[in-house]
Amino acid sequence: MLIGVWRIFDGKVEREFRLALVFCALLLLIPILQLIPLPPSLWAFLPGRDEIVTSYRLLGLDLPWRPITMTPDATWFGALSLLPPLALFLGISQLSFRDRRRLSLVVLAVGITSLFVGLLQVAQGPASPLRFYEVTNPSEAVGFFANRNHFSALLYSLLLLTAAWTTNAATAVSSKPPNKAYNTNAIIVLIVGFTVLVALLGG
Q: Do 84 and 100 share a structural domain?
């Protein structure tokens, strides 16, 4: 992530990513601002602070400086949870268009494999040898994951990638005469979309 930030300041990021990077910075700034300690004259009048103020007064304690957030630990964890996706976005922003395109194909390939594994898991039932974890959702498709929610996250990610590839294939076919490469691309996209739809309906 630090390397990605350094490359941004070095001017090695495409212009269309700059606005998105500003949005990411603002997103990370939200929990950080909530963690800044405020004097009692400010936080004591915020909504939901009456019980906290009463507790300090009953104990005979002076009101300390407190942040806006009611749960600082949870806010810290929330801020830290933003780092992996932001680091991933920074890394992707360093790639060329061709490299991003190839990477999306790798994600699609792994995702489609996981989809087929999930369909086989449902077909074979709870005793399927393709369920790789002891603690899992035994009657539902989980693919390479242990939890159906993570598998669902993969599905909606694949839907976005499939939509992007479908748009790309349609644009290519409409702007140039169809050839074998375009037809193959369109067929692959249709198969991906159909597989995702079947998996969603089956899950």
A: no
Indicate if 104 and 198 belong to the same structural domain: yes
**Mean pLDDT of the 28-39 span:** 94
**In the chain, where does DSSP find H-type helix?**
2-9, 15-34, 40-43, 50-58, 72-81, 83-93, 97-124, 148-175, 180-202
- Please check whether residue 47 is in contact with residue 70, taking contact to mean a CB–CB distance below 8 angstroms: no
Rounded to an integer, what distance in angstroms lies between the CA atom of residue 105 and that of residue 8? 26
> Do 184 and 108 share a domain, yes or no?
yes
Confidence of residue 184 (pLDDT cuts 50, 70, 90): low
**Rounded to two decimals, what is the model's pTM?**
0.66
CA-nearest of 108, 85, 71 to 23 is 85
How many distinct structural domains can be found in the chain? 2
Among 89, 118, 141, residue at a domain's last position? 89
- The H-or-E segment that residue 128 falls in is none
Phi, psi of 66 (to 5 degrees): -135, 150
Closest CA to 25 of 73, 79, 92, 68: 79
The SS3 call for residue 184 is helix
- Of residues 90 and 45, more confidence is placed in 45
